[in-house]
Amino acid sequence: MKKLVVILLLFSYLGAQAQEMSVYPDSLSKKRLKIVYGAVGGFYVTSVTLLYFAWYKGYDETSFHIADDWGEWMMKDKLGHMTTTYQLGNYGYWSLRWAGMNEKKAIWFGGTWGLIYMTTIEFFDGLSAEWGFSPSDMIFNTLGSAMFIGQQLLWHDQRIRLKFSYHSTEYPQYRPDLLGDNWAQQIIKDYNGQTNWLSVNIASFLKKDSKFPPWLNVAFGYGATGMIGAYDNPPEYDGQPLPHFNRVPHYFLSVDVDWTRIKTHSKVLRFVFKTLSFVKVPAPALEYDWENGMRFRPIFF
């Protein structure tokens, strides 16, 4: 639920900046900067308020405490933290560059927005009796921000993007409270159907005169299935026995599209492509897991 709110408000924030973001002014525009700060401030205050009332208010509050959850959901939750922080930093950078902020300042200020936002969520967790401040969450939040900032400082480019895909699975029917009882909830809660990707742009590592398609990426994915509990699977739910599932990691090799490298004269399409930059496209994939070995997926998302 927390991540669903973040994603929905992120798109609202982007919509507030629907003017063309890929044309950067030569100098700082105070008007554009006010638009960015207003949108970001509104996004931050609104989302944090909604998170509090929708998620935390129903649970007892306590003094700030630490409760690490390393290994939960076979590290899928941690990769989600890393991807979210990376993407928020990317959007922050684009927004400040659109406002005319110079490259270096935009990298550092915009690139850390995701880390600042996710730290707020961790702080709320630390005050809730149900959870606790998670050092491992913060490690992966920091890694996501560092991945964006490091690439931008080194290459002035994002040659390796963190991406996400989702497909429906059978598991939510057994634990709808935990994995979601409708499609919208399951995208966020059902880690069995989520795949996290490292999408690498090949052309950016080749010579400038290379004829290799600049938008074509190779993607390395990680998923996990058989999870109807955070750390292990319970034998029953609501008094009813549950089937046994092996908790299995899955590894993928696939192709992908870097939306931001597709050339178009349409301002709307350029904006849409940047908005979709976190989505791994459906494509053929090689999959490996210890139960089934290597197999070919004609299409996987």
Number of strands: 8
Sum up the overall morphology in one term. globular
Q: Supply the number of structural domains.
A: 2
Estimated helix fraction:
40-55%
Poorly predicted residue ranges: 18-22
Return the structural class.
Answer: alpha+beta
Q: What is the H/E string? A: HHHHHHEHHEEEEEHEE
User: Could you tell me how far the N terminus lies from the C terminus, measured between alpha carbons in angstroms?
Assistant: 22 Å
Average pLDDT reading: 90
Strands of the largest sheet, in order across it?
1-2-3-6-7-8
Strand content: 15-25%
**Main sheet?**
6 strands, antiparallel
Give the helix tally: 9
Rg, alpha carbons:
20 Å
Molecular structure report:
With 301 residues, the protein is of the alpha+beta class. It has two domains: 1-157, no CATH class; 159-301, no CATH class. It has nine helices and eight strands. The chain has helices spanning 2-15, 30-56, 76-98, 103-111, 113-126, 135-155, 176-179, 183-189, 267-275, and strands spanning 160-166, 194-201, 216-225, 236-237, 240-241, 248-257, 283-289, 293-300. A hairpin with a 2-residue loop joins β4 (236-237) and β5.
Secondary structure elements and pairings:
Elements: H1 2-15, H2 30-56, H3 76-98, H4 103-111, H5 113-126, H6 135-155, E1 160-166, H7 176-179, H8 183-189, E2 194-201, E3 216-225, E4 236-237, E5 240-241, E6 248-257, H9 267-275, E7 283-289, E8 293-300
Antiparallel strand pairs: 1-2, 2-3, 3-6, 4-5, 6-7, 7-8
Put the structure in a nutshell.
The chain is of the alpha+beta class and 301 residues long. Helices cover 43% and strands 18% of the residues. The protein has 9 helices and 8 strands.
